[in-house]
Amino acid sequence: MASNKKDKDDRQKAIPTSRVGRLARVARMAGGVAGGMLAEGTRQLRAGKRLRARDMLLTPANARRVADQLATMRGAAMKVGQILSMDTGDFLPRELADILARLRSDARYMPSQQLRKVMLDAYGPEWEELFYDFEMKPLAAASIGQVHRTIAPDGREIVLKVQYPGVASTIDSDVDNIATLLRMSGLLPAELDIQPLLNDAKHQLKDEADYHKEAKFLQAFGDLLRDDERFLVPEVLPDLTRRTVLAMTYVSGKPIETIVELPQQERDRVMTALIELMFLELFELRMVQTDPNFANYQYRSGSGEIVLLDFGATRRFKASFVNNYRKLLAAAMAQDEGKLVAAAERIGYAMGDQDSEYRALVLELFLLALEPLRHEGVYDFGRSDMAKRMSQLAEEVADYRDFWRAPPTDAMYFHRKLGGMFLLASRVKSRVDVHELIKRWLP
C-alpha cells in the first residue's frame, strides 16, 4: 500500500514523455538563451562595451536556463550534459563546463500522479497491494530514474529504482537535439568532433535504461564481492524486477563523504579499498562501474563496510583496450615517452607531431593525471594540488584547436571513474599507496 503523505516539495516536476514535448523543451531553452543574449548585448552596448558573442552567450542567467531545462527533461538530455561536463571538460569553455556540472547534483523528481502511472504500467492495477508502505517521496533522484523505499511481500525492506517515463524511447532524439542546440548556440567549439562520443552515449544509455541488464551487473558484482568483508552490495529481487523498475534489498549507510570525520587510518583504508576495486574491475573483470558519483557509495559506521550502489553505468571493456591501457600505465610509471605515445595512439588519442609543443603538453597532461600511480609510496590526496595543475595545463592544451578531438570513448569512461576516485580521495583527505596497488597488474 502506498503512503499518502503529501509532499509539496518544489523539486517535483512532471517529465515530458513525448518526442514532441521534449523537442519543445529544447526549443524553449534555445529561445531563452537567444533572448538572454539579446538582453546581455543591450546591456553591454549601454555600458559602452564592445560586443563579444561569447560574453553574451555564457552569462549566469543562460547557465541557469540550460541547466534547468536539461534537469527537467532528465533522461538522455541530462545524461549528455553530465557526460560532457565530466569527460570533455578539458576541451570545453570553462563556462560551459560550469553550466553542465550543475546537472550532476540536480535532484528533481516526478510528481505522484506520474509515478503512479509508471508503477501501474510495470505491475498492473494491483501494484499498491503488492508493496506495503510504499514511500511516494524518493530517497534519491538521478538522470534515468528515482529510488523509493517500500516493503516486499515477504516482509523484507527493499527499494525500487523507478525509471522516468519516456526515457528509453527518446534517447536518440534527445541526444541529437541537445547536440544540435550546443552546436548552433556556439557552446561547443566547432573544431571538436563529439559524434563518436554521442553515438556511444546513445548505446550506453539504452543499456542503462534496461533494468534487467543492470540487475545482471548488480548480481555479478554481488557474486564477485560476496566474500570480501570490505564491501556490501544490495541483493537483486528478480521476481519483482521489471524492465523499468529494479527491485533490490535496502541497505542503509551514510554518505561516503562523511568518512572525512573519521581517523586518518580509516579514511586511508576505505579509499585504498575503492581504488583497488577500480583496478580489479578494469584489469581482471574488464567490467567497470563507470559512474563515480559520490552518491553511489555509502559507509556503514558500525561495520566499516562500503556499500556499492547503482550499476546502470557499468561498461564492458575489450581486451585490446585493457592491454593497451596497461602498457600506457607502465610507460607512464617508467616515464618512457616513446612507449607512452605509442600506447596512447593505439588507444585512440591524437598525440600530434613528434617534437611538437602540443605533444609535449599532452604527455605532461598524461603524466600529471597519473601522478598518484607514479608516486612511490603513500600519495597524500588531501595535500595535493593536482586538480589545480591539471586545470591550468588543460587550458594550454585547449589552445591547440587544430588537434581537438573527443577522447576515445573507452578511455573517456575509465578516466571518468579514475578522476572520480581521485576526487573522492581528495575530498576525504586520504592517503593511498596507489603505486603499490597498481604494480600487481603491470608487466
Structure keywords:
443 residues; alpha+beta; four-stranded antiparallel β-sheet; four-stranded mixed β-sheet; globular
Tell me what you see in this structure.
- By secondary structure, the protein is of the alpha+beta class.
- The protein is 52% helix and 9% strand.
- It contains 18 helices and twelve strands.
- The strands form four sheets. Strands 1-2-3-5 form a four-stranded antiparallel beta sheet.
- The longest helix has 28 residues.
- The chain is globular and about 70 Å long.
Give me the strand/helix succession. HHHHHHHEEEHHHEEEHEEEEHHHHEHHEH
Number of helices: 18
Average pLDDT: 78
- In spatial order, strands of the major sheet run 1-2-3-5
The largest β sheet comes out as: 4 strands, antiparallel
Strand tally is: 12
Unreliable stretches: 29-45, 49-58, 86-92
Shape annotation: globular
Seen as an oligomer or otherwise, the chain set is single chain
Work out the strand percent: 5-15%
CA-to-CA gap between the ends?
57 Å
Kindly name the structural category: alpha+beta
Radius of gyration: 23 Å
| Helix proportion range | 40-55%
